[in-house]
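for the record, two folds in this file. i put them one after another cuz i was lazy. first one right below, seq on top, structure tokens after. the second one comes after a little note so u can tell where it starts
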Amino acid sequence: MPDAHPSDSADPFETRLAAGLRDAGDAFETDRAALVTAGALKGRRRLLRRRNAAVMSGAAGIALVGVGTAVLLPSGSPDVQGSPATSTRASASSAPAPVSGKDLFMLLGRQMGDGEYTKIETRGTDEGPAPYVHAVYDDGKGKSAVELSLGRVEPGSDEARQATTCPAKVFTHYDACRTSRLADGSVVMVLQGYEYPDRRVDTKLWSAELVTPQGQHVSVSEWNAAAEKDSPITRPQPPLSPARLTNLVASKEWRKVIDAIPEQTPTATPAPGDTAFGAPVAPTLKSLLPKGLTVSDSSGDDTGFGYLVVDDGKGKTLVQVNVQANMSDVEGDLFGSDAEVLSDGTKVAEHQGPGEKGGSGVVMWTVDTIRTDGTRVVVSAFNSGAQDTPSTRKTPALTMKQLRAIALSSKWR
């Protein structure tokens, strides 16, 4: 969209972008910060990964270009260091200069290649703790939602490891997943999967996660539709191949942006749901199983959440455990007035019902407990080896009484 009076030295993209911002401002009277809620990484802290959780929740962003405004980003656009918006902020300080949302979008566009971009939403390093770009990209072969998010993880932590570990197929169906290590020690995971785990719609979600030895975390996602959910499929595959996704997340430019994110002051009080159980869950769960069960799959060294696939000779059963701390503030929502209260104050709720992931004939048996210190332990079992595959037996291999004994075990303390 050309400016009415462009200067001779104006960058064509800068001109179109300024016009787009003006149009967006005219079209919206509400706070534009409310237009974006970063949901990047999809809960990668859970075993499902995109577990992606690790969800960047609640922080607001800015709509860079309003609905109806398209930006055609040419190849060879200036990078962050060369853009006027950034160079004017540079100072003599050794601290990296902030990177605006616009500059971050320009970087992503330059790495993606030629194409038209619409519905652009961004957040820069000076606008919140999680730099973020979301846009609809069209290379002439169909529209695709693309998303970039940047942040930090503790080097060597469970969070860092989970971000680049291929998810277990008992929870996430995908076509391919590969983890590799780059020459500089960074680890990259590229996942070719689907937006819906049960494949009720074949919207493809391909993603790449990179974690450097210093804890810089880069996440890129792309879909073969103009939106993650409730949008028609527009192309057979997302636009970037696994190799191009790897090259994109491995760009050194993102690390410079992450270095410009202000350090966050740690909070003294753990957030609700923070992991209470520091040891791997699966081995503890295995030690509590009744006799006569064989284990065919497990979550390994994951903490906070874990699972086993067991069989008593009559069919597979998935057993999973969540251990969470600081849940007292939601205790009333989780445990009603009819919850059983034990002599030590522990509350217990039992549930039996259909599965939640679409597997034919699957049932879910759950024992949910919360201790007086706010520690919550939830144990669930299914009559299938995975929630989204057909049942392998009439009921789970563990009884409700056995699940209750596991949930109430002192080993979770």
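(here's the note) second protein begins now
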Amino acid sequence: MPELPEVETSRRGIEPHLVGNVIQYAVVRNSRLRWPVAEEIMKLSDQLVLSIQRRAKYLLVELAKGWIIVHLGMSGSLRILPEERPAEKHDHVDLVMADGKVLRYTDPRRFGAWLWSDDLERCSVLAHLGPEPLSDDFHGSYLYARSSKKKTLIKPWLMDNKLVVGVGNIYANEALFTAHIQPDRPAHTLTEREANLLAETIKKVLQRSIEQGGTTLRDFLQSDGKPGYFAQELFVYGRAGEPCRICGEKIESIKLGQRSTFFCRHCQY
């Protein structure tokens, strides 16, 4: 599933092509995604794009009359293409722009979403989300305070969007490794020093991935069709049985919260 850096990379990729441009109309070839494509999107006509923002893994397209909310789901991707490019089997939604380009949404598994909101503050899918990990609202003191008395294991706890948004499986694994923290410890065992280090590490890992274009996943492409490059720097994710890049011990893999978890028992404690 595309995680926060992949979504942010998509946002940055499409922003210069959409902001200040006019959506002439939408083409919806298959409205049956995770939820039905909003009728307001299907009826769009001559709408100026004011901004492209991101909240958690949702892309927010600001128009004068409301917001298009896009979630890439398990396998969704966005590309900027010439309008005459023929649509293929899994190309479900186009936003046709006034300059002759289209924003094309491709999603083989159809688990993404195209929603509409007149008021983001009352939007149900955005309610109850925790702070953005790269914002000033997310820091070690916040993490330490929230960990108090929490018996949840650290890695599943970090992946709870009510705690902090966008720390998905790949980046939770990588951040915990870099911070030298065992993923299957209860959250309440975090010391204040560890919480400060973990918050700082999460920010660095995510920012580095964004700068390099996101993590290369089987289903992920940037808006220009190029894959991301951060996968070349992964320390533990997907490397079970391989030697640790730091100490040489074998990377181990276990299931936590039904998600594959990778760690080095020697470097993390």
